[in-house]
Amino acid sequence: MKAFTLRASLLSSTVPMLGIIMSLLILSPDAQAQGRIAAGPEPNLSLKLEIERSIAKGVAYLKSQQDAASGAWSDPDYPAFTALAVSALIGDPGRDLHQPLSAEIEQGYAFLLANRQADGGIYAKGLSNYNTSLAIMALVQSGKAEHLPVIAKARRFLVNLQHDYEKPGVADSLYDGGIGYGSSTTAHSDLSNTSRALEALYYSKKALADTEYSVKAEEELDWDAAISFISATQNSEASVQRWGESFILRPEDKGGFVYYPGNTKSDQIEIPITGAKPKIALRSYGSMTYTGLLSFLYADMDSTDPRVVAALDWLQQNYTLDENPGMDSQGLYYYYHTMSKALALSGLDILHDATGKRIDWKQDLALRILSLQKRDGSWKNEASNRWMEDDPDLVTAYSLLALEQIWRQL
Questions:
Q1: Does 346 reside within a domain?
Q2: Residue pair 381/329 in contact by the 8 Å Cβ criterion
Q3: CB-CB contact of 80 with 397 (8 Å)
Q4: 3-state secondary structure 98-160
Q5: Contact, 100 vs 22, CB < 8 A?
Q6: Could you report the per-residue pLDDT of 163-176, keeping only the tens digit for each?
Q7: Angle at CA 118, nearest 5°, toward 115 and 123?
Q8: Which residues contact 1 (CB under 8 A, 6 or more apart)?
Q9: What number of other Cβ atoms are within 10 A of residue 16's Cβ?
Q10: DSSP calls for 266-335
Q11: Percentage with pLDDT > 90 across the chain
Q12: Is residue 9 in a domain?
């Protein structure tokens, strides 16, 4: 696997935040000069136009689903759903950047701000990390200076959720360095929630730079501890040894990721051992492996690090858009959404599948998502309701964010 050059992702915003937000979007000239591997074909104008039409339909659908009274989408107990919808609307390439934000976006922001808590988090009845992380991402994209202090306080809240069990500063737990759904002392860390927090911390720090809210050293996350936790969720010889004597690594899982150390949402496979008790292999799966790769990128891991290389190798060996590898249809749209972000941020234009075939992932993924859009402009996981993917508001937001990411890469 060749080294790749990381490039900044546009995420879902094309709006400068008083000049600050551009630091999210552009790498330094030195970094740009390093180039990218396997440059893809010239931009496909026809595909770009198809994506624009699809996004316009999806945006119209989302706007029609907003609760007029509260400004929320889907379940108001989960501000994260509204944050995702707002991010999708604000990232619409058809939005006139010279015009004020639409009423729907403004109402969405008002709903998010109404859910601010005294501790700085942005949540309602729970899942404080999940909700706050996604709310931060939406607020970072707003272009509003008045959101900066909200972002800064919410960012400090996330930092304080990082787990450090038993002896402070000592890696004495597999969960140290990670973040879970909420409390830093009770709920265990998991890769999905850790990645959500790292994304919000990574981009909010850039948005707050050179303002009165710039992040101070003592307000920063322990990124080394976070990398240690992320690494412990990757299927590797070192990780499996840390999980315990009952676990074993299968070659086909190496480099992929699981949900948290010693736990997968995919299959637990019993492996016979001659003269001893069987051992358990935890199957790697697609959505968590893209999440793991994305987490490494947010932590500024070197592209030649063996853990990064192993993750990319697993993803290419298991490349498919027909399912979330290892999970069938479960979490399919989260898989697409995370895939688009991870590959855009990595700077890769071309992948190679298990047969060596070259894959233009942007075209491949765009066409797949376009083919699944319903006539009313929405998307919905018809095959599985796991992780609430039977909610068309949530899945439409995922799909729009993925298409917007691809559109910008084209």
A1: yes
A2: yes
A3: no
A4: CCCCCHHHHHHHHHHHHCECCCCCECCCCCHHHHHHHHHHHHHCCCCHHHHHHHHHHHHHHHC
A5: no
A6: 986 656 656 678 89
A7: 30
A8: 309, 312, 313
A9: 14
A10: S-EEEEEETTEEEEEEEPP-HHHHHHHHHHHHHTT--TT-HHHHHHHHHHHHT--SSSBTTTBTTTHHHH
A11: 83
A12: no
Look at the chain and report how many structural domains it folds into: 1
Q: Residue 130's domain is classified under what CATH number?
A: 1.50.10.20
Decide: 117 and 109 in contact? Cβ < 8 Å: no
φ, ψ at 93 (rounded to 5°) = -65, -15
Tokens of 212: 């009165």
- Render the burial of 180-209: b for 16+ CB within 10 Å, e for the rest: bbbebeebbbbbbbbbbbbbbbbbbbbbbe
Average pLDDT of adjacent 10-residue blocks, the chain of 410 residues: 41 37 33 35 78 98 97 97 98 94 98 98 94 98 95 97 73 85 72 98 96 95 96 97 96 98 96 94 98 97 95 98 97 98 95 95 97 98 96 98 96
Phi (first) and psi of residue 398, to 5 degrees: -55, -45
- Domain that includes residue 206, residue range: 22-409
By C-alpha distance, which of 311, 310, 308, 320 is closest to 353?
320
Q: Return the structure tokens found at 334.
A: 């989260």
Q: Which strand (E) or helix (H) includes residue 90? A: helix 79-90
Residue 1 lies in a domain: no
Task: For residue range 268-285, list pLDDT tens digits in order.
Answer: 999 999 999 999 999 999
| Residues 121, 128 contacting (CB under 8 angstroms) | yes
Measured CA to CA, the distance from residue 76 to residue 80 in angstroms comes to: 9
Rg of the chain in Å (alpha carbons): 20
pTM of the model: 0.89
Give me 272's structure tokens: 């016979």
In a domain, 11, yes or no: no
Residue written as token pair 């016979």: 272
Gap between the Cα atoms of 72 and 252, Å rounded: 43
